[in-house]
Amino acid sequence: MNRVIYNIGWQGMSSGNLSWYPASMDCTFSEFAKSLRDVEAIEDLFNYAKKAHVPPASIVLMLLIDTETHYWEYTIKMINVREYRAHWESVYNKKWKES
């Protein structure tokens, strides 16, 4: 059984979780990545950050990828996801640069 467990958070001068409980999807990581790069998912995460009063550029996903034999833990900065960065640049009408 493959599944991806994720929690939404932020990183910056401080960091923390924004979602109360982790969510779980019964899928492979490649299926999860495909759904994450969907336009709707990108907009939802962007709006989630704004509602939580954190900068959208600081959103991270904390992942646990569980396969039948192994598991991995990763933290993904959403601003480094190509589609999320393109959405950020279109909303703020400027190029992203790491400061």
Give the overall pLDDT as a whole number: 89
Please report the total strand number as a whole number. Answer: 5
Structural class: alpha+beta
SS strand fraction: 25-35%
Radius of gyration equals: 14 Å
Low-confidence stretches: none
Tell me what the structure shows.
By secondary structure, the protein is an alpha+beta fold. It has 3 helices and 5 strands. Strands 1, 2, 3, 4 and 5 form a 5-stranded antiparallel beta sheet that branches. Helix 2 packs across helix 3 (82-92). It is globular and about 45 Å long. The mean pLDDT is 89.
Features:
99 residues, single chain, five-stranded antiparallel beta sheet, alpha+beta, 32% helix
Outline the fold blueprint.
Elements: E1 3-11, E2 15-17, E3 23-25, H1 29-36, H2 39-51, E4 59-66, E5 71-77, H3 82-92
Helix pairs in contact: 2-3
